[in-house]
Amino acid sequence: MDTIEGIKTVIAVVETGSFTAASDRLAISKSLVSKYIGEVEERLGVRLFNRTTRQIALTEAGNNYYQHALDLLEQYNVMLENVVGEQAELKGLLRLSAPFSFGEQILAPVLSEFMQRFPKLKIDLRLSNKPVDMLEEGIDLRIRIGRIEDSNMIARQLQKIPLILVASPSYIEQYGLLDNPHNLEKHDAVIDSNFGLGKHWPLYHEKQGELLVNVNSKLTVNGSKAVTELSAAGAGIGLVPRNVVEADLKSGRLIHLLPDYKSLEFGLYLIYPHRKFLPKKLKCFIEFMQQKFDHY
Q1: What angle do the packed helices 19-26 and 3-16 form, to 10 degrees?
Q2: Could you say which residues of the chain have pLDDT below 50?
Q3: Long-range contacts of 39-45 (CB under 8 A, 24+ apart)
Q4: What is the pLDDT of residue 286?
Q5: Cα–Cα distance measured from residue 112 to residue 100, given in angstroms and rounded to the nearest whole number
Q6: What is the torsional sign of CA 79, 83, 84, 86?
Q7: Predicted pLDDT of residue 85
Q8: How do residues 176-188 score in pLDDT, each as one tens digit?
Q9: Phi-psi region of 160 (alpha: psi -120 to 50; beta: other; left: phi over 0)
Q10: What pLDDT, on the 0 to 100 scale, is given for residue 175?
Q11: How far apart are CA 16 and CA 7, in angstroms?
């Protein structure tokens, strides 16, 4: 067993919490994971994990090894990058996580451009609106829209995304143009449950201040893309992230209602581990995203 492979295996077991999950991350068999851990423990003369039939627990020595192993692996990766040189093409696998609507409508086109720049780099994009355990799933970078919980991760904000009111031309033709926020309750609304607003939508006007408007709805979904499509089909008025409907606004498929009123704004964040040395592939992707979204 190579020493570096042993270090990677220990880190994977600690961060995933099991030999099975670690084997999935490393793409090796569970028996090989167990073998590598045993060889590391035998070489050190200490037990890194207490094992039972149902679970494993990190020992004090194991935790000490893990903390040092992280630093050592970072320095090792930096050494490889320095030896290979700045002109070498990026290789390896970059694991990303993003919300469904953002991933499908916004990230996919720019991700294609990134892969054209670095054709030897592989991308594993996982779309989910649920919380993601980056360490357990081996995610290099997570894209998140919304509030950021306290974390040991770095959260770098790319931009702010406002929510806006939209409806289709056919809906407006049938029910009339919304010209007053208090008339919202007279219309049908399509609610995105991800925002947690329910039937009370916050609006803000420079002169009138903050408003909390009641809406009526028979349609609730858990995705901005679904709200967009339902609104475009004439199902009602939607409150959606502007970046998701930008193309629909330009084409006239959707109409921006009450443009003088603002609603909530969510931050668009890149979240990645707090490391002294970032892998070159991750640094390049962060720089690429900053360039793309500075003027998005």
Answers
A1: 120
A2: 87, 296
A3: 39/1, 39/6, 40/1, 40/6, 40/7, 40/9, 40/10, 40/65, 43/6
A4: 94
A5: 17
A6: positive
A7: 56
A8: 999 899 999 999 9
A9: beta
A10: 93
A11: 14
Q: Please report the pLDDT score of residue 102 as a whole number.
A: 87
pLDDT at 280: 82
271 contacts 141 by C-beta, under 8 angstroms: yes
- The reported pTM is 0.67
* Structure tokens given for 278: 């970032």
Please state, in angstroms and rounded to a whole number, the distance separating the CA atoms of residues 166 and 234: 10
pLDDT of residue 84: 62
Tokens 């490889």, residue located: 80
pLDDT, one tens digit per residue, over 111-148 is 999 999 999 899 999 998 888 888 878 899 999 988 77
Could you give the CA distance from residue 228 to residue 168 in angstroms, rounded to a whole number?
10
200 vs 109, 165, 182, 215, 219, CA distance in Å?
A: 34, 13, 12, 6, 14
pLDDT of 76 reads 83
Domains (range + CATH), the chain: 3-84 (1.10.10.10), 92-160+267-293 (3.40.190.10), 161-263 (3.40.190.290)
Contact criterion met (CB below 8 Å) for 154 and 183: no
Q: For residue 270, which of 123, 153, 166, 185 has the smallest C-alpha distance?
A: 153
Cβ proximity of 195 and 238 under 8 Å: no
Q: How many CB atoms lie within 10 A of CB 164?
A: 21
- Separation of alpha carbons 96 and 143, rounded Å: 8
